Amino acid sequence: EQQRNWDGLPMCKYQGFWCPIFILRPLLSFQRNFKARDSDIVLASVPKSGTTWLKALLFSIVNRNNFPIDQSPLLTTNSHKLVFSLECFCYTKHDNPDLENVPQPRLFSTHLPLQVLANSLINSKCKIVYICRNPLDQFVSERHFLLKKQRDKPYGEMLPLEEAFELFCNGVHAFGPFCDHLLGYWNASLENPDKVLFLKYEDLKRDPLSDVKKIAEFVGLPFSEEEEKAGLVGEISKLCSFDKLRDLEVNKTGVHAGTVKNKFFYRKGDVGDWVNHLTPEMAERMKEVLEAKLTGSGLVLDI
Ligand code: A3P
C-alpha cells in the first residue's frame, strides 16, 4: 500500500505503520543489525512531539558529571548531533554502522513504532524513554516544519490544511497512525515500567523539574541529595529550556543531516498553539478520533 504524506513524501505501509520510503532500507538494516547493550537509552517519539528537547535533557542528565553546565556540549552542538537517530541517521548511509564508539551509555532516538524495533533492543535491558504530545499541537508543529522544509527541497505540492488534517485524523502521516504509535509504547510502559517511561510534552512543560528527576531515576542515575541541594535539576531544565536553546548560535545557524536547518526545530514551544491554526470543529473531530482509539487504554491526552 502506498500513499503520499501532506508534503508529497512517498510512504508505504510497513508492519502496520506509514513508513517514509527513504526510511525503509535503514529500518531493515536496523532490524537486522542493531546490537543493543543493556546500558543503551533510546528516546522514542512521533516527530514534532518534543524529540529535540528530550534529547537535550537526556544528554544533560546522563553527562552531568562529565561537563559543568556552562561548558555543556549543548551550547555549541545541536541536540541531534549528540543523540543520533537510528533510522534517520545511523542506518541511512551504512547497513551496519560502527556504533561501538558512541559514548557510554549510548543514547539514540527513533520515530519508529514499537512493533518494528530491532528484537535486540526489545530483548535487552536497555531503556526506552517515550514522549507524546497533544496531537493538535503536534499536527500544527509538523505542518509548519514541512512547510519550511518544503521551500528548500520540495517533494511535491503541500496539501491544504483541511485535507492534511483529515489524513492525519485517519492516521495517514509519516510514522503514523499516531494513536497506534502512542498506544504501542503506552501499553509497553504499563506492562514493563522498568523498560519504557512514558512522558507527555505538556507535563514536561508544566513541571520540568519533576520529569527531569523521573527520567534520571528511570535511567538508573537518580540525583543525589547534594545535587538537588546544589540546584542541578533546575540548572539542567534551564539549560534545555526552549528560549535558551533557540537563542544559541548553533541552533540559529547550523544545518542538521545536510538538509534541515537547526532553527526549524525551534518554532514556538508552546502548549495549545493549535487554537491559532485549527477550528473548534477540527478539535471536536480529533476528540472523536481519540475517544474511538484510546478509550479503555487508560491513556488520556491533554487536549
Ligand atoms: P512547535 O512547532 O509547536 O514550536 P521535535 O523536536 O520532536 O521535532 O518537536 C519540535 C517541537 O518541539 C516544536 O514545537 C519545537 O518548537 C518544540 N521544542 C523544541 N525545543 C524545545 C524545548 N527546549 N522546549 C520546549 N519545546 C521545544
TrEMBL record:
Keywords per UniProt: Transferase
Family: Belongs to the sulfotransferase 1 family.
InterPro entries listed in its UniProt record: P-loop_NTPase, Sulfotransferase_dom
Organism for this UniProt entry: Buddleja alternifolia
Membrane-spanning intervals of the chain: none
Domain called Sulfotransferase: residue spans: 38-298
Gene3D superfamilies, A to Z: P-loop containing nucleotide triphosphate hydrolases
Name of the protein in its database record: Sulfotransferase
Lineage: Eukaryota, Viridiplantae, Streptophyta, Embryophyta, Tracheophyta
GO molecular function terms noted in the UniProt entry: sulfotransferase activity
Enzyme class label: transferase
Entry EC no(s): 2.8.2.-
